[in-house]
Amino acid sequence: MDITSQTTYDLIGGERSLQQLVEAFYPKVYSDPLLSPLFNGDMNEIMRKQKMFLTQLLGGPPLYSREFGPPAMRARHMPFEITPVRAQAWLRCMREALDEVEMDGTIRELFFARLSQIAGIMVNASDKNERED
């Protein structure tokens, strides 16, 4: 398969790479004081859903839609107070996870740029008194 016919999902290493990324990411999220209040519940189930979503986002099989319908992530996240500072904290945790799994180069830049767009779209509240240190 030549590179022009590969999806971002293929280029990052597919299911195995996404599993490693999600496993590196969520412990960071659950230990972050700004983010942990938003992530109640079974971490394994949240990780499973995130892996399904990222698989679909990156051009892999539409796993998330098959089980849950259209992603509609902004609507699904409306019950949670997502501030600009929390969005940046989420991106910081993702950057650290990308470092941990040693994803680098152009594919990382493209992937992170897409995640940055999504993080911005998720913001639904002002920062009030929050600060990311």
TrEMBL record:
Keywords: Heme, Iron, Metal-binding, Transport. The keyword Signal does not apply. The keyword GTP-binding does not apply. Signal peptide: none annotated. One of its GO terms (molecular function) is metal ion binding. It holds the Pfam family Bac_globin. Belongs to the truncated hemoglobin family. Group II subfamily. PANTHER family: TWO-ON-TWO HEMOGLOBIN-3. This is Globin. It comes from Exobacillus caeni.
